[in-house]
Amino acid sequence: MKTYRQLRTTRSITKTAGRAWRTIAACTLALAASAGPALAECDTSICSGDPCTITGTHYIDCLCDLNFGSKTVTIAPSATLRADGCCFSIEAANLIVSGTLRARAGCITVTTTGYVTTNIVSNSAGTIDVSDGGSADITAGGAVTLNGRNVDADNSAGYAGDIAIIGSSVSGTSAVHADGGDGGDGGNLDISSTTGAVSLTGNVTTNGGGSYGWGGYITVDSADALTVGTSTRRMQAKGASGGDGGTIDLTAAGSAAINGDINANGAGTDGGYGGDISIDAAYFSCATVSAITATGGSGGGDGGYIDITATCGASVDCDMDVGGQGEMAWGGDITIDAGAGSGCTALVTANSRLEADSSGTDASDGTVEVSGCSVTHSGVFDTRNTNLDSGTNIVRYRNNFTANAGSSMLADDDGGNLIYCRCVDTTPADGVCDTPAACVNSPTLNGTVNPAATIIPTAMAACS
Question: How many Cβ atoms are within 10 Å of 122's Cβ, its own excluded?
Answer without folding.
Answer: 7
